[in-house]
Write a sequence for this structure.
């Protein structure tokens, strides 16, 4: 049995799955990073991801174009995050309470719409669509092992990797990125420079929502091709955990995402190989390890000083 | 010289009870209107649907009893939420702690099958066991937060999934009823069933939940510990200066919160199913968060909100018979109300004042 696991082919497919699963949460985590760097703790990533997963599925199902689905997911993520933004940035309601409430709202909304639009769902009758196919990057995908792991992935994975660069560049190499980071540390200083704190934070929240929406569409449009209630299964929360574990830095968040993807990949592949352990243990593994990871990552110093605090001008 | 006036929007320090009540009423009315609109858009007659919900929830004695039965677990998880959230300890783990309570009860009953205690001893004992089970599961995030300042939100969410799989594992193996195809245990001995009240299906659990609401009220507003819990939530830094050990408070509220959620699990199992069965909780834990927020983080509010939602859930079953509108409408209504309430409350915290222009 263990000999089977240490075959090159299996290791490669574990790593390829790790990249795929990791980039799903990576998208969500990058969005959360931007919001948190602006000082907004968005606890509704799970709900936004769920909304994206649903809107993406719906859009693709009716337009018969997966990319229109992705677009719908991004727009839906922006719309739902605008509610969160309104509550938190404009009305200064507790960020935790708002996040939890938007989660409840998103869960209720998607569940209701799904049941209304597909009234006959049940048993084996689950509406499905043909998901995205992997995109081979020319030449690079032919590299042995590495090619299979990194360059035979879904387009959304490439987008996620690309966004790491974009966000790192934005945060550390642009003036606007500097303002955003300062917002999370000392919003008063930014306000005194004449920058509109409310607008900046609102846009950061919308960006987070868009990314969460994309992450959600990844699940329904590339990973499985169906939508069911709670399909995100805690991945939105995982994205928040990854931001903590990744010390609020893009590169570390990339590695943290891939690490969690690896756990997912291991879980799936070991189960497929038939390792003689209860399957529930495999399913529980990502959640147990996330708990351990948050514990190990508790002494991180990168948390924005004003994270979770409202800025109200005196 | 004439004085010049202009209008200024100001934020109130405290919204006050009357304003708060008005904002809730407006939020409920707006939600009702939006819901009616949604029903209309989905091609049904809002009047018929809403009437069916009302009739199904309060229309007859049986309907009222069912409503109260449905309100029981969410009342307890709502109380669990209050205790934690009042200290700004964000326990999202009521669902898992509820499972822990139900599992603790199951463990005791399956491990000691020959337990021949009379019901009046056994039931209080099992209620205690459920609370201990929930408190133990809640103690993990509580301890990690108190001792190591680990984010309780993530840990509680993750532990919900962990215990769900642990329960599935047991129900798929050691605890499964022999020969059963489904994920459930054997029926528990009758002495462990919660007694029924007034010759109806209403079980003792409802009374226990209301009593717990009273206890939570006394704890939070009449005892020093409750004062410390609320002070920690209001201003942790000032509380520390006052000599309140906020880490200790974090752990204590997680224990109490877990115990209340665990009690909900034990009651649901012993009052309704009389066995542990997969899927016995239809998100009662998560709904508790909603109940607490709707109930303005107050035990009386939680009682009202939980009965209201028990009624909605119950009415939704009747609605499904009379129309094509799916039950999940309730989930939408819940989400709508919570967002509306937050918004209207926020709007009411602002006031427009006429102020004299200076200079």
């Amino acid at each position: 049995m263990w000999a089977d696991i240490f075959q090159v082919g299996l290791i490669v497919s574990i790593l390829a799955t790790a990249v795929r699963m990791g980039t799903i949460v990576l998208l969500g985590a990058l969005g959360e990073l931007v919001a948190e760097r602006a000082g907004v703790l968005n606890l509704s990533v799970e709900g936004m991801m769920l909304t994206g997963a649903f809107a993406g599925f719906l859009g693709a199902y009716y337009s018969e174009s997966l990319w229109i689905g992705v677009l719908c997911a991004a727009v839906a993520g922006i719309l739902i995050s605008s509610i969160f933004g309104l509550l938190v940035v404009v009305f200064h309601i507790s960020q935790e309470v708002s996040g939890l409430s938007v989660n409840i709202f998103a869960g209720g909304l998607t569940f209701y719409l799904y049941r209304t639009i597909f009234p006959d769902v049940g048993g084996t009758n689950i509406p499905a669509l043909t998901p995205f196919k992997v995109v081979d990057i020319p030449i690079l995908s032919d590299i042995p092992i590495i090619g299979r792991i990194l360059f035979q992935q879904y387009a959304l994975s490439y987008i996620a990797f690309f966004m790491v660069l974009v966000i790192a560049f934005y945060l550390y190499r642009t003036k606007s990125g500097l303002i955003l980071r300062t917002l999370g540390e000392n919003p008063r200083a930014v306000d005194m420079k004449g920058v509109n704190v409310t607008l900046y934070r609102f846009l950061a929240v919308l960006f987070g929502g868009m990314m969460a929406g994309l992450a959600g569409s990844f699940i329904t449009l590339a990973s499985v091709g169906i939508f069911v209630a709670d399909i995100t299964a805690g991945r939105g929360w995982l994205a928040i955990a990854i931001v903590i574990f990744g010390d609020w830095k893009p590169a570390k968040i990339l590695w943290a995402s891939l690490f969690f993807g690896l756990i997912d990949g291991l879980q799936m592949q070991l189960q497929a190989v038939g390792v003689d352990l209860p399957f529930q243990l495999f399913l529980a593994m990502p959640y147990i390890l996330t708990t351990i990871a948050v514990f190990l990552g508790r002494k991180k110093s990168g948390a924005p000083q004003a994270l979770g605090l409202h800025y109200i001008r005196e | 010289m004439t004085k010049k006036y202009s209008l200024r929007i100001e934020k109130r320090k405290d919204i006050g009870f009357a304003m708060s009540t008005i904002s809730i009423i407006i939020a409920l009315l707006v939600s009702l209107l939006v819901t009616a609109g949604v029903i209309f858009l989905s091609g049904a007659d809002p009047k018929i649907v809403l009437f069916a919900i009302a009739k199904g929830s309060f229309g007859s004695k049986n309907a009222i009893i069912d409503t109260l039965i449905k309100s029981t677990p969410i009342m307890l998880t709502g109380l669990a939420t209050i205790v934690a959230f009042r200290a700004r300890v964000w326990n999202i783990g009521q669902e898992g702690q509820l499972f822990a309570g139900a599992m603790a009860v199951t463990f005791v009953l399956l491990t000691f099958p020959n337990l021949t205690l009379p019901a009046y001893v056994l039931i209080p004992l099992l209620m205690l066991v459920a609370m201990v089970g929930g408190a133990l599961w809640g103690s993990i995030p509580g301890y990690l937060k108190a001792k190591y300042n680990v984010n309780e939100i993530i840990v509680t969410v993750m532990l919900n999934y962990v215990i769900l799989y642990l329960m599935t594992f047991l129900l798929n193996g050691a605890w499964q009823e022999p020969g059963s195809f489904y994920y459930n245990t054997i029926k528990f001995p009758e002495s462990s069933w919660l007694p029924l009240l007034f010759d109806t299906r209403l079980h003792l659990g409802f009374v226990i939940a209301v009593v717990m609401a009273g206890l939570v009220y006394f704890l939070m507003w009449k005892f020093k510990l409750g004062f410390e819990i609320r002070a920690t939530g209001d201003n942790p830094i000032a509380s520390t200066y006052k000599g309140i050990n906020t880490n200790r408070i974090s752990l204590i509220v997680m224990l109490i919160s877990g115990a209340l959620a665990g009690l909900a699990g034990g009651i649901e199992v012993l009052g309704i199913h009389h066995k542990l069965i997969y899927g016995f909780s239809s998100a009662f834990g998560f709904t508790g968060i909603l109940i607490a927020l709707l109930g303005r983080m107050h035990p009386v509010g939680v009682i009202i909100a939980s009965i209201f939602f028990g009624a909605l859930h119950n009415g939704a079953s009747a609605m499904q018979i009379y129309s094509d509108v799916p039950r999940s409408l309730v989930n939408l209504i819940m989400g709508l109300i919570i967002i509306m309430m937050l918004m209207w409350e926020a709007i009411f915290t602002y006031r427009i004042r006429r102020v004299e222009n200076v200079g």
In short: The beta strands of chain A are 135-136, 152-153.
